[in-house]
């Protein structure tokens, strides 16, 4: 069964006119239910993660100031969201959703978090709509409790996973792979274990050729026990913050290839949704929904 992490807190209320489309987190489950791709039993509510588990990744000083609403105005601007207790609880819930997806993926082959992919959060600060780093938190939990020895992060959001790269820069147990827009945010990039920076306007053919050449070799070399896949749909040509030129069909083929390759290699894969900022909300939801449709077709 495809297990999907979702909580109403994901659709955190933002000020009028904010450019982040929070409503997508409500509409993705509604669309999947409406079309019959999933049923209510596919969804689970992860609840907030305990602080001890968060502190395996984030520094005590940063976490306490985030939790207690004591970040500076500059730090809050870097995150890009108004700082509230609800935002902190949302971050804890998203992180637990990704962790629980890792457990479900080991049982069913794949599991998916309607939110997540908060890859710009460092151990000691947040930025780029990210307060805590859900994939890093989940990976560090699994490693700390000696449940896994080798993890691969496949980050195909259009923006480099700078926070994730920095957190695991000296940890050989986690291999970070980021394929992203070379000239996009963040301006100052970190060094992942493997970075592929793509030029503006990269199209389906070029993108998929590079991915299909890279991923099988990577799995062979890294030999991971579990994959965290960040499947951002901000690679679309229509995306306001993207600068690449993938079509919805190309984005769907990307997801198909990643998930199919993981399945063929008996690799459990936990998927976080990542970014999506097209003008059309329907297009954002449709592109994200494709990831779930592909997972159902391949695994179930």
TrEMBL record:
<dbReference type="GO" id="GO:0040029">
    <property type="term" value="P:epigenetic regulation of gene expression"/>
</dbReference>
<dbReference type="InterPro" id="IPR000286">
    <property type="entry name" value="HDACs"/>
</dbReference>
<protein>
    <submittedName>
        <fullName>Histone deacetylase</fullName>
    </submittedName>
</protein>
<dbReference type="GO" id="GO:0004407">
    <property type="term" value="F:histone deacetylase activity"/>
</dbReference>
<dbReference type="InterPro" id="IPR023801">
    <property type="entry name" value="His_deacetylse_dom"/>
</dbReference>
<dbReference type="InterPro" id="IPR044150">
    <property type="entry name" value="HDAC_classIV"/>
</dbReference>
<dbReference type="InterPro" id="IPR037138">
    <property type="entry name" value="His_deacetylse_dom_sf"/>
</dbReference>
<feature type="domain" description="Histone deacetylase">
    <location>
        <begin position="20"/>
        <end position="289"/>
    </location>
</feature>
<comment type="similarity">
    <text>Belongs to the histone deacetylase family.</text>
</comment>
<keyword id="KW-0378">Hydrolase</keyword>
<dbReference type="GO" id="GO:0016787">
    <property type="term" value="F:hydrolase activity"/>
</dbReference>
<dbReference type="InterPro" id="IPR023696">
    <property type="entry name" value="Ureohydrolase_dom_sf"/>
</dbReference>
<dbReference type="Pfam" id="PF00850">
    <property type="entry name" value="Hist_deacetyl"/>
</dbReference>
